[in-house]
Amino acid sequence: MILRVMLSLVIGILLAGFLFLKYHPVFGGKASKEKANALSQSENFARKKFINQIPTVMDTRITTMVGILRDFMKGNPNGKPKRAIPVEPLNSVIMPDKYTKVTWFGHSTLLLEMDGKRLLLDPMFSKTLSPFSSIGGKRYSKILPIELEELPAIDVVILSHDHYDHLDYQSIKKLKDKVSQFYVPLGVGNHLARWGVEAEKIKEFDWWNEYKLDGLTLVCTPARHFSGRSVSDRDTTLWSSWVIVGQESRVYFSGDTGYGPHFAKIGEMYGPFDLTLIECGQYDERWSAIHMMPEETVQAHFDVKGKILIPVHWSAFTLAFHDWTDPIERVRKAARKRNLGISTPKIGETVFIGSVEYPNSIWWR
């Protein structure tokens, strides 16, 4: 009898977990058979999944996994700030006549205002990274520069891929009615559709696809990463970086990526860039194929022919074992060695492209 009860409990738990993963909307949507067939026609699709341009393998040896588990259990006392980090309030969003401007919200969320358009990149406004709001890594800052509900109308939301720290269910649910268009890599539109975004608002892109928007040119460009929101959907959607070309300014947004030859190709085709927004944090030698080391961030900036670099993908959440300030310190050191133009705005501090001076305070110390 006891064995029967235990077996029933185990079966019940497994069934509940299966149903939760299958039906809870936070895990996103899946492609229909017709849509899946269309996705498979991409040149970047093979063996039933999307692939990178070059071999991209994470170290999954038993010794490596044991080492990662050991580091996780050990923790890092400097992995998070010990005091509140500064946040500049964004009291108004006004389109200047002369400058393109960008405002960083921490991690990889940015508001780009260019040629009369507002573009929101990888909007992640939740307090945790987890699909469950009560658990998971907490945001460093207790406040944001502006509450999501107070944002003005957004012309375009641009997404780089479907991981939780870049595509946030709660943020999309709150944003969807004030956004005119969502530009996403192939397959990511399935998640948005399940969350109530109208089909006519969603435009999906393969690498090197271009789209004209009232004088702006938006290009979905390669990245070296992976995708997935659940246990069974690894690499079923595409990941990307983005090029945004205006009448006066050119901006490059890396999304999440390991270092690779795609940077030089992007620079050759669309550079030089007035501003690059390139990831520099959440790295580790054991997964360096999908997240660059900070010195590679600087090299990527040179490869795409950037003028000013704003390092992103740090200062909001802890997703790796390094000190929380290591990414920016290492990027600054590498930038000094190569005489690179770098800007280090506070969260919420607006950067005007083409201005005489760029924010450069060492606010994290």
TrEMBL record:
A Gene Ontology cellular component where this protein is annotated is: cytoplasm
Q: Where is the Metallo-beta-lactamase domain?
A: 118-314
* Pfam families with a match to the protein in the record: Lactamase_B_2
A GO molecular function held by the record: zinc ion binding
Superkingdom field: Bacteria
The name on file for this protein is Metallo-beta-lactamase domain-containing protein
What is the protein's species of origin?
A: Desulfosporosinus fructosivorans
